[in-house]
TrEMBL record:
<feature type="binding site">
    <location>
        <begin position="183"/>
        <end position="184"/>
    </location>
    <ligand>
        <name>ATP</name>
    </ligand>
</feature>
<dbReference type="InterPro" id="IPR004114">
    <property type="entry name" value="THUMP_dom"/>
</dbReference>
<dbReference type="Pfam" id="PF02926">
    <property type="entry name" value="THUMP"/>
</dbReference>
<keyword id="KW-0784">Thiamine biosynthesis</keyword>
<dbReference type="Pfam" id="PF02568">
    <property type="entry name" value="ThiI"/>
</dbReference>
<keyword id="KW-0694">RNA-binding</keyword>
<dbReference type="InterPro" id="IPR050102">
    <property type="entry name" value="tRNA_sulfurtransferase_ThiI"/>
</dbReference>
<keyword id="KW-0963">Cytoplasm</keyword>
<dbReference type="InterPro" id="IPR014729">
    <property type="entry name" value="Rossmann-like_a/b/a_fold"/>
</dbReference>
<comment type="function">
    <text>Catalyzes the ATP-dependent transfer of a sulfur to tRNA to produce 4-thiouridine in position 8 of tRNAs, which functions as a near-UV photosensor. Also catalyzes the transfer of sulfur to the sulfur carrier protein ThiS, forming ThiS-thiocarboxylate. This is a step in the synthesis of thiazole, in the thiamine biosynthesis pathway. The sulfur is donated as persulfide by IscS.</text>
</comment>
<dbReference type="InterPro" id="IPR020536">
    <property type="entry name" value="ThiI_AANH"/>
</dbReference>
<dbReference type="InterPro" id="IPR049961">
    <property type="entry name" value="ThiI_N"/>
</dbReference>
<dbReference type="Pfam" id="PF22025">
    <property type="entry name" value="ThiI_fer"/>
</dbReference>
<protein>
    <recommendedName>
        <fullName>Probable tRNA sulfurtransferase</fullName>
        <ecNumber>2.8.1.4</ecNumber>
    </recommendedName>
</protein>
<feature type="binding site">
    <location>
        <position position="265"/>
    </location>
    <ligand>
        <name>ATP</name>
    </ligand>
</feature>
<keyword id="KW-0067">ATP-binding</keyword>
<feature type="binding site">
    <location>
        <begin position="208"/>
        <end position="209"/>
    </location>
    <ligand>
        <name>ATP</name>
    </ligand>
</feature>
Amino acid sequence: MREIILIRYGEIGLKGMNRRYFEKKFIQNIKWAIKHIADAYVLDRHGRAYVEYEAKDHDEVIDAVTKIFGVVSISIAHKIDNDFELMKREGLAEVKRQMTLTGATTFKVETKRANKGFPMKSPDICQKVGGYILSNVEGLKVDVNNPQITLTLEIRENTYIYCERIPGPGGMPYGTAGKGMLLLSGGIDSPVAGYLMGKRGVELEAVHFHSYPFTSDRALEKVIDLGKKLTKYTRNLKIHSINILEIQKAINEKCPSEEMTILSRRFMMKIAEQLALTYGCGCLITGENIGQVASQTMEGLTVTNNAVDMPILRPLIAYDKVDIIKIAKQLDTFDISILPYEDCCTVFLPDRVVTKPKVDKIIYSENLLNGEALIAQAIDQRETYIISRGELRE
Ligand code: ATP
Ligand code: MG
């Protein structure tokens, strides 16, 4: 049996002259998301997207479609001919089904008549279909202001009948707002930061820094597992894994110990910027947040920014931790993030860190190191992993 999903998209439809571009990308993304599910296909009509599929694939299709950026909400609809008798019968069946499912006792009927060729007007249709349902179901009342069931009839080239609305993530179609290099640690914040930028249409590529053999293989596995979760929303994800142990050793040897964190951070930014330029990214993305840890002060951010020319986007800058955790749980990354494998070497972490670093002083320390050579070597020895649809590609 065939089912149909009706997909609503919000902001994309407001994009004026560029609307067609956004819609086209959106439809491509939907097609990609359901490509692996036999027999599902997308119809693109009149500012709405539809997915038709075999009923047996229901759960898989819903799971995929509710993770597509740009989807505001979906409804699972019956598609019938534009025949008034059918509308009444199917409307009644749908309301009865909802009552059984939810125990609801109030309803209203809503009609959207996009097809002006249909001879009856919307208020008339609502009234007659509503009356028919009322006279055929016991214990049901009309409530136009706050109904438990809203039966919607959308009359287009066919009529779509549905009650439920399932929310999607919203946002803009993935890949419509350029590309960004995400600094992906194993922590809670950075996967959430990547998700939020992806949701605004920014395509992601990622870089992870580690200090192998001081940090374990498990730390890398953890980051790959986080990447797998992200690809439920972002198609593919390339993760560059970079060993910064030599850099940390050099800092440890030549610079004041309390500057370890801020200096490492500047190196991370510089390496990320070089990779970003190589792979066509226009910004860096981090999970930084003001005030969360000692190094994340205004002064710290200033000194970090000063390391690169590329803009560093920090979507979590003003989020409370509880709100970040809420999103991490929705993404299913939280349980992975709290696994206790360190991402960067803690051997070199000092007891005290500078909380108000000064650019001049930090650059002075940095100049004690052969930065360019250290960076070139780290990048040269990178390993790259590609994740697609939640699986690591060999
Ligand atoms: P997170 O939970 O994302 O690790 P955090 O609260 O632990 O963040 P920091 O460790 O100070 O904060 O890191 C801030 C940001 O710097 C991270 O969100 C991430 O974008 C980047 N970052 C830190 N460590 C790494 C790393 N090992 N690899 C890649 N990016 C990193
Ligand atoms: Mg961290």
